[in-house]
Design goal:
The complex is a heterodimer of chains A (about 300) and B (about 300). Chain A has about 300 residues and is mainly alpha-helical. Chain A is built from 14 helices and two strands. Chain A has one domain: MetI-like fold, CATH 1.10.3720. Helix content of chain A is about 75%, strand content about 0%. In chain A, α2 packs across α14, α4 crosses α13 and α13 runs antiparallel to α14. Chain B has about 300 residues and is mainly α. Helix content of chain B is about 70%, strand content about 0%. Chain B starts with a helix and ends with a helix. Classes of the chains: A mainly alpha (about 300), B mainly alpha (about 300). Chains A and B meet through α2, α4, α5, α6 and α7 of A and α1, α2, α5, α6 and α7 of B.
C-alpha cells in the first residue's frame, strides 16, 4: 500500500517525460494490437490443448463409450487400472524402456558430443550421421528395423550366423522383444541429445580447461570436474524431454510388435490407444493417460530436485 | 571417452613426445567416430540396398550386402502395389500447410509476446509454456472427440451429433496440429533478442504494430523462420498417430500411415516396402542435409534458453 503509489507515480512521470502527448492513446492502440496478434494462437491453444487436457481429467472419472453419453463413475476406472495386469505390465514395460533408453543414449550422446566438440576433419559428416535417425520418421525407421530383425532373412541374424550364433526371433521371443525395441529407441535417441550437448559445450568457458591443464588435470579429470558439472542445465533439459519422449513411445511399438508377444512390449501409450480406439472406452483411456501424465510430473519434479539446485 | 582415456594414460609427456601422441589420439578418435557414424547409418543403407534387390536375392541367407543386380523397377512396381504417390502428395500438402500456418500465426503471437507490452502478457506466456509441457497422450482422446463432434461438419448438427464431423477430412489433418506452443515459444525468444530502438523509431514514425512486425522485425528473424519452418515440416511429415486416428480413407492417407497399412495387409513384399520407406525418408534426409544449420540452431535454442 505504502509502496505502490510512489511506484506508479514515477512510472507515469517517466512515461510523461518520454512522450507527453501520444502516450495514452498510443498505449491503448498498442495493447489492442498485442491482443489481436496473440488471439489466433491463444484460441487455437485453448481449443486444442487446454480444453482437451481438462477434458481428459474429467472424462477419466466417467464411463464413456462414445455412442452413449458419459456416465460418472468416480474412481472406478482407476480402481480397475490398479487391478489390471495388462496395464501393470504396460507401466512396467514403459519404465524399463525409459530406464534403459534414456540414460544409455544420454551417456553415448555426451561422449560423442565431447569428441565432436573439437577441430576435426569431417566433423559435420559425423554430426549428420548421428543426427539422421532423429529427423526421419519413426514409422519408416521402425519398418527398416522390422526388416533387419526378420528372423528368416534379416540382416542381424545374417551377421550372427557369420560368427556361428543361432538365429534369434528378435521380436517374437517374449524375453528378447523388449530389448529389441529398446535398441531401436537408443539408436534413434542419440542424435538430438548429442546436438543439445554440443550447443551447451560451446558455451563453456575455455579458460576453465586452460586453468585445469596448468594445474595438471588430465583430460579425464577435466571431463568429470569441468565438463559434466557445466553441462548440468543441459542435462536437466535433455533428461526431461527424453523422459517425456520415452514415456510416449508408440510408433515403433505399433510397427514392430503390436505390443506383443503376450504383452511383452505393450506400453502405457499403447494401452491408451487400445482402450480408446479399439475398445472405444474413452473414459478408461483418459484415466490411463492421466496416470501417464502423473508419472511424467513426478519424474520431472524428482529430477529437478536432484539436478536443479543451482539451476534457474 | 575411450579416446580421452587412452590419451590420458599416455599423458604427462615431454614436449618432444607430443606430436606422435596427438596423432595417435587423432587416428583413434577418427576410427571411433567413423565406426559410430557408420553404425548409425547402417539401417539407412540397408533400406536403400533392400529396395533394389530382386525377390530371389531377398530370401538368401545369410543376406548379401551389395545387390547382385540393381532392380530399380521395384520403385515403379511399389507405386503400382500401393498408392504411395497419393500418400506422398498428402504428406506434402499437410506438412506444407502446417508449416505456413505455424510460421504466420506463431510469428505473430511470438512477436506480440516479445515486444508489445499489454496486460496479461506474462500470464499468457506462462500459459503457452504450460501447454508446451503437455504430452500428446494427455490430450489425444478429447482432441479426437472434438474432431468427431465438430458441429455442422460431416453431417453433424449444431450440437455435433449425428455425423462424422471432421473425421476423414482435410480439416482434421490440417487444423488441430497446425500450431504448436513450441513454435510460439521459439519465435518469442528470437524476437526478444532484437534491439528496442527499431520499434521505438518505427512507432514514432507512426507505423502500425502489424507493419512493424511484418516489415521491420520479421525480415530480421529470417533464420528463425527457417528453423521453425523446418522443425514444423519435419514434425508434420513424420507424424503418425494423429493421421492414423482421424483418417480411414485411402485417398487421405499420409505416407507414414500408408506404409504401416501396406505392411499389415497380407504378405509383406520387402523390396516394395523398403522402396516406399525410402520415399518416406528421402525428403527429410535431403532437407536436413541441405539445411543442417537451421535444424541445429533450432535444437540449440530450445536447449539453452
Amino acid at each position: 500500500m505504502t509502496i505502490k503509489p510512489p511506484g506508479t507515480a514515477s512510472e507515469a512521470a517517466s512515461a510523461a517525460r518520454r512522450r507527453p502527448r501520444r502516450s495514452i492513446p498510443a498505449g491503448r492502440k498498442l495493447r489492442r494490437a498485442g491482443w489481436l496478434m496473440v488471439a489466433p494462437a491463444l484460441a487455437h491453444t485453448i481449443l486444442w490443448i487446454a480444453i482437451p487436457v481438462l477434458a481428459t481429467l474429467v472424462l477419466s472419472f466417467t464411463d464413456y463409450q462414445v455412442f452413449r453419453a458419459p456416465r460418472w463413475v468416480a474412481l472406478e476406472n482407476y480402481v480397475e487400472l490398479w487391478n489390471d495386469d495388462v496395464f501393470r505390465k504396460a507401466t512396467w514395460n514403459t519404465i524399463v524402456y525409459t530406464f534403459f533408453t534414456v540414460p544409455v543414449s544420454m551417456a553415448v550422446a555426451v561422449v560423442i558430443a565431447v569428441l565432436l566438440n573439437q577441430k576435426l576433419r569431417g566433423r559435420t559428416i559425423y554430426r549428420a550421421a548421428f543426427f539422421l535417425p532423429q529427423v526421419t520418421a519413426t514409422v519408416a525407421i521402425a519398418m527398416v528395423w522390422l526388416w533387419m530383425y526378420n528372423p528368416q532373412y534379416g540382416l542381424l541374424n545374417g551377421l550372427l550366423s557369420m560368427v556361428g550364433v543361432p538365429r534369434q526371433i528378435w521380436l517374437g521371443d517374449p524375453s528378447l522383444a523388449l530389448w529389441s525395441v529398446i535398441a531401436v529407441g537408443i539408436w534413434q535417441g542419440i542424435g538430438m541429445k548429442m546436438l543439445i550437448y554440443l550447443a551447451a559445450l560451446q558455451n563453456i568457458d575455455q579458460n576453465l580447461y586452460e586453468a585445469a591443464s596448468i594445474d595438471g588435470a588430465s583430460k579425464v579429470q577435466q571431463f568429470f570436474s569441468i565438463t559434466l558439472p557445466m553441462l548440468k542445465p543441459a542435462t536437466f533439459f535433455v533428461f526431461v524431454i527424453s523422459i517425456i519422449g520415452a514415456f510416449q513411445v508408440f510408433d515403433q511399438i505399433y510397427v514392430l510388435t503390436d505390443g506383443g508377444p503376450a504383452n511383452a512390449t505393450t506400453m502405457m501409450t499403447y494401452e491408451v490407444y487400445r482402450s480408446a480406439f479399439q475398445n472405444f472406452r474413452m473414459g478408461m483411456a483418459c484415466a490411463q493417460s492421466v496416470v501417464l501424465f502423473a508419472f511424467l510430473i513426478v519424474l520431472t519434479v524428482i529430477n529437478r530436485r536432484l539436478t536443479g539446485g543451482d539451476e534457474k | 571417452m575411450t579416446a580421452t582415456t587412452t590419451s590420458a594414460s599416455h599423458g604427462a609427456g615431454q614436449p618432444a613426445e607430443r606430436r606422435p601422441r596427438v596423432n595417435a589420439r587423432r587416428v583413434l578418435l577418427t576410427v571411433l567416430l567413423a565406426f559410430g557414424a557408420f553404425t548409425m547409418i547402417i539401417p539407412f543403407l540397408w533400406m536403400i540396398l533392400t529396395s533394389v534387390k530382386s525377390p530371389a536375392e531377398l530370401i538368401e541367407f545369410p543376406p548379401s550386402f551389395w545387390p547382385k543386380e540393381w532392380v530399380w523397377s521395384n520403385y515403379t512396381e511399389a507405386l503400382d502395389a500401393a498408392p504411395f504417390a497419393t500418400y506422398f502428395r498428402n504428406s506434402l500438402v499437410i506438412a506444407t500447410g502446417h508449416t505456413l500456418i505455424t510460421v504466420f500465426f506463431g510469428a505473430m503471437a511470438g512477436y506480440a509476446l516479445a515486444r508489445i507490452p499489454f496486460r496479461g502478457r506474462e500470464l499468457i506466456f506462462l500459459g503457452f509454456i504450460a501447454m508446451l509441457m503437455i504430452p500428446t497422450y494427455t490430450k489425444i482422446v478429447p482432441q479426437f472427440l472434438l474432431v468427431k463432434f465438430m458441429p455442422l461438419f460431416g453431417g453433424n448438427d449444431i450440437l455435433g451429433q449425428g455425423g462424422s464431423g471432421w473425421l476423414n477430412t482435410w480439416w482434421a489433418l490440417l487444423i488441430p496440429g497446425g500450431l504448436s506452443p513450441f513454435a510460439i515459444f521459439l519465435f518469442r525468444q528470437f524476437y526478444l533478442s532484437l534491439p528496442r530502438e527499431l520499434e521505438e523509431a518505427a512507432r514514432l514514425d507512426g507505423l502500425g504494430e502489424f507493419r512493424i512486425w511484418g516489415q521491420v522485425y520479421t525480415p530480421l528473424v529470417k533464420p528463425a523462420i527457417a528453423t521453425v519452418a523446418l522443425l514444423t515440416f519435419q514434425d508434420s511429415w513424420n507424424n503418425f498417430l494423429w493421421p492414423l486416428l482421424v483418417t480411414t480413407r485411402d485417398d487421405l492417407r499420409v505416407i507414414q500411415v500408408g506404409l504401416a497399412v501396406f505392411q499389415q495387409e497380407g504378405t509383406t513384399q520387402w523390396a516394395y516396402l523398403m522402396a516406399g520407406t525410402t520415399l518416406a525418408t528421402i525428403p527429410m534426409v535431403v532437407l536436413f542435409l541441405v539445411a543442417q544449420r537451421y535444424f541445429i540452431q533450432g535444437f540449440a535454442t530450445a536447449g539453452i534458453k
